[in-house]
Amino acid sequence: MRKGVGLGAFDRRNLTSAQYASHGDTLRSEHLTSLTTQLSVFQSLLHQFSLTHAKDIRSNPSFRAEFARMCNAIGVDPLAGSNIRKDGVAGTAGGSFWAQMLGGSVNDFYFELAVRVVEVCRSSRGVNGGLIGVSECRIKIAKGRGVGGEMEVSDDDILRAVRSLKPLGSGFAIVKIGQKQMIRSVPKELNTDQSKVLEAIQVLGYVTASMLQVNLDWDHARSQTVIDDLLADSLVWVDLQVREPEYWSPQFMQDGVA
User: Fold this and answer.
1) Fewer CB under 10 Å: which end of the chain, C or N?
2) Terminal Cα distance for the chain, rounded
3) What φ, ψ does residue 191 adopt, rounded to 5°?
4) What CA–CA distance (Å, rounded) separates 121 from 186?
5) Of 72, 71, 69, 94, which Cα lies nearest the Cα of 84?
């Protein structure tokens, strides 16, 4: 006859469970200690790398882009927490943790560039309605007084600079129209119909109300309403010296001239 399970068996099982739990805690603690040590070593190396190559980071767009991609790949954002000191207290003294670790060169560069992007967007807003191509913005900055002296910037730099403005609630954002990346410097969002019209202009050069009716299967009221909204925001210009009014995007007209 099979004997029942006594209290000793329960005690042994509880003891075994406690031993497993203790062993698991020990492994987690050792793993955390190892990761902390590795992170400390990596931070030191990254800091030394940024100081050694600070000149290349500021002056060489390709080198800077690769450095930024390397940071992103390991979860390092050199633009994050610009108002958080290393001790975790808000404030400007001491700069951000990453700014201190990277010697400030990367952080300073992108915020200086962001200032120039804001200047270009605001100065051209009356012409393009607050929608400017990333490449056009880069060209305007290169033709201007420069960022920190003579400095070459890339489209990737412009994109990162615009994203650095997001925590400020500035209304600046990157939008994609067709295959073209644009900087929107006004808080107003483009609706789906407006995006389709601007994408059509990008392909065709201009649109008319009848073209939208034929190609997008819209009725006349819908076509004209979308065009009038874009016209009111200065996102399109109208040519009245033709049989049917033609609507052109100043942004894409400038791209064609360039």
Assistant:
1) N
2) 97
3) -85, 175
4) 9
5) 94
Q: What predicted TM-score, i.e. pTM, was given to this entire model? A: 0.57
CB atoms within 10 A of CB 121: 22
Supply 227's token pair. Answer: 């065009």
Q: Which residue has the tokens 């490449």?
A: 135
Quote the mean pLDDT of the chain. 75
Percentage of residues of the chain with pLDDT beyond 90: 12
Start-end of H helices in the chain: 7-52, 54-59, 61-73, 97-101, 105-128, 134-143, 155-163, 192-204, 209-216, 220-232, 250-257
Beta bridge partners of 248: 206, 237
**Which two structure tokens, joined as six digits, stand for 66?**
């690769």
- Pairwise CA distance, residues 99 & 105, whole Å: 7
Which of 61, 247, 206, 204 has the alpha carbon at shortest distance from 142?
61
Please report, for residues 16, 44, 136, the alpha-carbon distance to residue 182 in angstroms, rounded to integers and kept in the order given: 62, 37, 9
Nearest-10 crossing angle of helices 105-128, 7-52: 70
d(CA 139, CA 114): 14
